[in-house]
Amino acid sequence: MSMIGVFSDSDGDLEALDRALRFLAKKGAKRFLFAGGNYKDLDDWVEKKRDEAKAQTDYSNLDFLADVSSFLDEGEQVDRPPAFGTAYELSRKATELVTLKGKVLRTPEKGCLAYQDPSVPKKAVDMMGDVLVCVVHDKNDLDKEDMLNAVCLVHGKEAEAKVVQIGPRYFVTPGKVSGSKPTVGVLELTGSGLKYTGYDLEDKVVVPPTPIQVAAKKKISVK
Predict the structure, then answer these.
(1) CA 60, CA 66: separation in Å to the nearest integer?
(2) pLDDT value for 65
(3) pTM
(4) Tens of pLDDT along 106-123?
(5) What is the CA radius of gyration of the chain?
(6) 97 phi and psi, to 5 degrees?
(7) Are 168 and 147 in contact (CB under 8 A)?
(8) What is the Cβ-side half-sphere exposure of residue 37, based on CA atoms within 13 angstroms?
(9) Strand ranges (DSSP E) for the chain?
């Protein structure tokens, strides 16, 4: 079953973003929708993870002293995990990060540099089965064309996770991953459309499974 993780508003808290991604991955999400706030957090998180990976693979001064001490005692070099300190391990981790970043569809928030960049779309779209999903940080950026084309409209800039149905359209917000009550959500493909479920990071359901259905097209009668 296809599943997409949904999160928003990390607000510069990279640890919160990290927890959200880990939780959604454990839920089975293979792709992610990040509805902004802050757009650059994903880049900063990747850079932080690269630095951490590099630090873990460095041959430190303490490692050197331990090997010297062992040599002076006529012992052998201290055993370490095979991956420790290897360029291969660092390259593998960097590749994994780049791959994961490519699976995150994101949109910028007003006021950030990406929002002013004409090459960065202010809205993003994805298809899940027959359902067109539109992603934006601020729902006020949605226009008439978005409303006509998309059935599921995902947005950020909300403290509370919820699904609001207006006519045949569904407005979905995962809430915030920053702050004291972080929440995220998952969109799942079903036989009749989509299903959205919201969670806190303790795995408690905060938005019960909610069907997002495509309205049946009316048959045209020809006489």
Answers:
(1) 10
(2) 59
(3) 0.80
(4) 999 999 999 999 999 999
(5) 22
(6) -65, -45
(7) no
(8) 23
(9) 3-7, 31-34, 104-106, 124-128, 131-136, 152-155, 162-166, 169-173, 183-189, 193-200, 205-213
